[in-house]
Design a protein that fits this description.
The protein is mostly helical. It has two domains: about 170 residues, Cytochrome c-like domain (Cytochrome Bc1 Complex, Chain D, domain 2, Orthogonal Bundle), CATH 1.10.760; about 160 residues, Orthogonal Bundle (Cytochrome Bc1 Complex, Chain D, domain 2). It has 16 helices and two strands. It has a two-stranded antiparallel ribbon with strand order 1-2. Helix 3 packs antiparallel against helix 8 and helix 3 crosses helix 9. The longest helix has 23 residues. The protein is globular. It binds heme C (HEC) (2 copies). The site of one heme C has 25 residues, from helix 12 and helix 15.
Length: about 375
């Protein structure tokens, strides 16, 4: 009786064995436990403080590498022509020198591609702060019809057909390619892009000797507050929105503001996300690191030079701009900075230049 049972079971067991072999055979089996952990302190500089790393997505060498492959791979787009790196170019601090980037079929969006670095510390993403998690964010460019125009179901199939991804996904997560792990791997890679190697970093927080006299003047202007009557102003007050080691107000309650570009809005910014009139024309304050590489400036890339940016804050602010930050409206009087003050501000901004970001092999195209 017992014997018979075993005999009956045998074909079932065999079939199951064969089936599972067929699925897994050509590639290394379940290896999630083998992925090599990366110590956050090896990636993130102490001067920045530790960022919050999502508990369910610890950094691993294999995960980061997979994310890097995906970032540089045009297979993520409809016609395999555009990768994330087409618009986020390492030689421009992962920004795009074009005012508006080109996606599939040469289509264009309405905003300038921001540079990508120190994202691990950021709390919101996109100019209008509409995303909070990198793993969610990646699906936007992939599916945007003007960017990569890819159907995600189709993308999963595409990835599964490629040996390089069958191997890399298993090494990182122990499973065959799937969208969830794709987004986690990209989150890992994006988090590891760090820029912390500039003259400014030798200064931070208070070694003023690292600066030339002109840079020092610029620094003091940047961090000084104007009074409401003295002109040219004695302080340019940039630090409220671009202060600290990140040169950026990261806290969304401080950093999402209007900096007075337009009286009449063509882009509602954050107001479009919240639906509130009190958020119209507000945008996320960007980091001012690496500006030398990241022209053109502002959400629509309207300024091509830093001189134009400084002229905006000094002389051209629109006091009637909806929701203009009170930080920028000093009694409806323009700052009227002198030419020397403007040059000093720019000299200081340039101390936040990190050329090593542009050549760091850890972030470069792994297919070359
Ligand atoms: C066709 C050009 C293009 C492609 C391709 C593209 N991006 Fe972007 N990216 C942009 C633009 C433009 C923005 C700003 C959009 C906005 O704010 O509404 C942006 C914003 C971002 C941001 C937000 C940065 C910040 O500081 O808030 C991240 C992160 C990002 N992209 C990552 C990616 C990743 C990852 C990919 C590939 C999956 C990708 N991008 C593909 C153009 C592109
Ligand atoms: C009240 C907050 C606030 C203050 C104060 C402020 N900014 Fe900004 N800054 C912003 C916001 C918001 C943006 C993005 C606006 C947009 O694109 O619509 C921005 C954008 C910029 C950019 C463009 C960066 C890029 O990557 O495109 C530069 C450069 C800049 N600011 C420099 C300065 C300087 C210099 C000062 C001082 C004179 C200053 N800011 C004061 C909020 C502020």
């Amino acid at each position: 009786m017992r014997k018979q049972h075993y005999i009956l079971l045998l074909p079932v067991l065999l079939a199951f064995g064969v089936y599972s072999c067929k699925r897994e055979a050509p590639l290394p089996v379940k290896s999630s436990f083998l992925a090599t952990p990366v110590k956050p302190s090896d990636v993130f500089p102490a001067s920045f403080g530790m960022p919050l790393i999502p508990k369910d997505n610890p950094l691993t060498e294999e995960g980061i590498y997979l994310g890097r492959m995906l970032f540089y791979d045009p297979v993520l787009s409809l016609d395999s022509s555009i990768s994330c790196a087409s618009c986020h170019r390492q030689e421009f601090a992962f920004g795009d020198p074009k005012t508006l980037s080109k996606g599939v079929f040469g289509l264009q969006g309405t905003r300038n591609a921001p540079p990508l670095y120190n994202l691990a510390w950021q709390r919101t993403f996109f100019w209008d702060a509409r995303q909070r998690r990198l793993r969610d964010l990646v699906f936007e460019p992939i599916q945007d019809h003007r960017e990569m125009a890819m159907n995600v179901i189709r993308l999963e199939e595409k990835l599964r057909k490629l040996d390089r991804y069958q191997i890399a996904f298993r090494k990182a997560f122990g499973e065959e390619p799937n969208l969830h792990h794709m987004s986690l791997a990209m989150e890992q890679f994006l988090m590891t892009i760090v820029s912390a190697n500039s003259k400014f970093d030798q200064f931070f927080p208070r070694n003023l000797n690292a600066f030339s006299p002109q840079e020092r003047d610029g620094f003091l202007l940047f961090n000084g507050t104007p009074d409401s009557t003295t002109r040219p102003a004695i302080g340019a007050d940039c630090f409220h929105c671009h202060g600290g080691v990140h040169a950026q107000a990261i806290d969304p309650s401080i950093g999402i503001v209007s900096n007075g570009l337009d009286d009449v809005l063509t882009d509602k910014g954050y107001g479009n996300i919240t639906g509130k009139a009190s958020d119209l024309g507000k945008f996320k304050s960007p980091s001012l690191r690496n500006l030398v590489y990241t022209a053109p400036y502002m959400h629509d890339g309207r300024f091509t030079t830093l001189e134009q940016v400084i002229d905006h804050y000094s002389d051209n602010l629109k006091f009637n701009a909806p929701n203009l930050s009170p930080q920028l409206n000093h009694g409806n009087l323009h700052l009227q900075l002198t030419a020397a003050q403007k040059s000093a501000l720019i000299a200081f901004l340039k101390t936040m230049t990190d050329s090593s970001l542009l050549t760091n092999k850890a972030y470069s195209n792994p297919f070359r």
